[in-house]
Design a protein that fits this description.
mainly beta, YefM-like fold, five-stranded antiparallel beta sheet, four-stranded mixed beta sheet, 2 helices
C-alpha cells in the first residue's frame, strides 16, 4: 500500500510541472492617423488604446494610452555641447597693379594702346585677375576698351602656377612665381612682360 501511494504522488508531481511558454512573435497592429490639429483628435479611451496620431499643426506625434494622449519625443534628449571650432579668420587679399606702359604709346602712332591688369591674391590660396585693354585713335578721337577677368582656386594656383584671361584685344597671363603679367596682342607673336607692384592689403 505504501508503494502504491508513493507512485501516485510521483505522477501527481510530474503532471504539475511547468510547460515552457513560447514567445509571441506576432506583430501587434497599430492604427495610425493624421489630423489637422488637437481639436480633431478623438476621445482617448480603451477602444483607442495604442492609436497613433500625427498632428499637422504642431508637427507632433501623439499616442493614446487608453486614458489620455502622450507626446512621442522623436528627437531624444539634448546632447552634450560640442567642441568649439577654430576661430574665424579674415580672408586677406594682396592687391597688385600690373600696368603696361611700353606697348604702342608713341604719340605719333596711329593708335595708342595700353593694358592694365589688377591681381588679387588671397591668403586662402585663391586668386583673381582683371585685365583691361584700351585703344585710342588720335585721328578719330575715339577710345575703345575691352576687359576680361578670371578666377583660380587653390588647386589651380598650386598646379598651373598661372592664371590668364582673354579679352577682345589680347591675352593676359599672370605668373604666380615671378609676380609678372605677360601680354600678347591677338595676331602678333610678340609678348611683353610687365612686373606687378603691390598696392595695398584688403580684408574681406
Amino acid at each position: 500500500m505504501r508503494t502504491i501511494l508513493i507512485i501516485f504522488i510521483y505522477f501527481i508531481l510530474v503532471g504539475c510541472g511547468k510547460t515552457p511558454i513560447e514567445p509571441n512573435t506576432e506583430l501587434i497592429s497599430h492604427n495610425f492617423y493624421s489630423v489637422l490639429d488637437d481639436t480633431a483628435l478623438p476621445v482617448c479611451d480603451e477602444t483607442k488604446l495604442g492609436w497613433l496620431f500625427y498632428v499637422s499643426e504642431t508637427k507632433l506625434f501623439k499616442n493614446c494610452n487608453g486614458t489620455e494622449y502622450e507626446e512621442i519625443n522623436l528627437k531624444g534628449d539634448v546632447g552634450l555641447p560640442g567642441i568649439p571650432g577654430p576661430e574665424a579668420r579674415d580672408n586677406v587679399a594682396h592687391e597688385y597693379d600690373c600696368i603696361n606702359t611700353s606697348l604702342d604709346l608713341d604719340p605719333s602712332a596711329e593708335e595708342l594702346y595700353g593694358v592694365f591688369t589688377s591681381v588679387f591674391l588671397f591668403d586662402s590660396g585663391m586668386a583673381s585677375v582683371f585685365c583691361e585693354s584700351s585703344f585710342y585713335t588720335p585721328t578719330l578721337g575715339f577710345w575703345d576698351s575691352s576687359s576680361c577677368s578670371s578666377f583660380a582656386t587653390k588647386t589651380r594656383v598650386d598646379t598651373d602656377r598661372e592664371i590668364y584671361c582673354l579679352n577682345f584685344y589680347n591675352t593676359c597671363t599672370y605668373h604666380f612665381q615671378t609676380n609678372e603679367v605677360v601680354y600678347k596682342k591677338h595676331g602678333e607673336l610678340i609678348t611683353r612682360t610687365v612686373p606687378c607692384f603691390e598696392r595695398n592689403l584688403s580684408v574681406y
